[in-house]
Amino acid sequence: MSDAVIVSGSGRSVLGEGVTWSARDNAVYWVDILGLGIRRLLLDDGRVTHWTTPERTGWLIERTGGDGFIAGLQSGFHELTLPQDGGTAVVTRIIDPEPDLADNRMNDAAADCHGRIWAGTMPVSCEGETGTFYRLDPDRTLTTVDAPYTIANGPAIAPDGTWLFHTDTALNTIFRFDIRDDGSLGQRVPHIVFDGSAGHPDGMTLDADGCLWVAHWGGSRVTRFDLTGQAMRHIPLPASQITRMAFAGADLDRMFVTSAADGVDHETHAGALFEVDPGCKGLPTLAFGG
């Protein structure tokens, strides 16, 4: 596959995000934050199923301790289950980290090898430094690990859980943090700084070779960087607002990429789900340990 392929039936997301691979279901899931939706692509037959959500939902992460998912909604961390054939997602709140910030929402997250979820919040308006980076442990203890953020994105976490990349898209900077034994973060160290000519850093993931893949919001591409921060490869996409990618398939050698139509409705393929050939393999998707 040399070019981006638009996934048939993927629809047009207002703000597609949170794409994740489920080996359990042999499926790719992604969310439409502003469109209040969740979609699933079954790799067996290409069928796409759609669910609605009661709030803006930024991400889904599978659980090791039960069926369904943990999800990041506008009002915080929730358990989430999906009716088999579509309909409305069923949610049960775990904790709202910011009950005093009604205009904030959760935006992006990832699980680590210890079964913890690392997740950021941001203002709905994308203006003001009211966002925070949190860690939810398997016992459902919530800890603030870094602040402030305007548009928290990522994270991408080392397979052994000793460090992570995270970004504030508004700062055009991807930061590297060491993760201490107690789960706290070390110093926020700039790792890659975008100059704005190719958009802004959005969602991220690591591949099996230790390289970092970054989606370019406003840049119509995903880029593979080596661990020194040098760009190795760009894959162009026929939409400008690229938000996140995930490796998928039995061999983790397929890549699916989300995009957004918000603000660029004139673009024919804005908001589509794309498949590209990454030319490498990804890491297994990790789950929440509770």
Report a brief summary of the structure.
0% of the residues lie in helices and 49% in strands. The chain is mainly beta and 290 residues long. The chain has a single domain (5-276), classed as TolB, C-terminal domain (Neuraminidase, 6 Propeller), CATH 2.120.10.30.
What key attributes describe this structure?
single chain, 290 residues, mainly beta, five-stranded mixed β-sheet, Neuraminidase, four-stranded antiparallel β-sheet, globular
The CATH topology name reads Neuraminidase
User: Strand order, biggest sheet?
Assistant: 2-3-4-5-9
CATH superfamily: TolB, C-terminal domain
Counting DSSP H or I runs of 4 or more residues, the number of helices is 0
The helicity comes to under 10%
Protein name: SMP-30/gluconolactonase/LRE family protein
Domain SMP-30/Gluconolactonase/LRE-like region: 15-260
Family: Belongs to the SMP-30/CGR1 family.
InterPro entries: 6-blade_b-propeller_TolB-like, SGL, SMP-30
Description:
The structure is a single chain. The protein has 290 residues and is an all-beta fold. The protein has one domain: TolB, C-terminal domain (Neuraminidase), CATH 2.120.10.30. 0% of the residues lie in helices and 49% in strands. It has strands at 5-6, 16-22, 27-32, 37-42, 48-52, 57-62, 69-73, 76-81, 87-88, 90-95, 104-111, 117-123, 131-136, 142-149, 152-157, 163-168, 173-178, 189-193, 200-206, 212-217, 221-225, 231-236, 242-248, 254-259, 274-276. A hairpin with a 5-residue loop joins strand 4 and strand 5 (48-52). The mean pLDDT is 97. Pfam families: SGL.
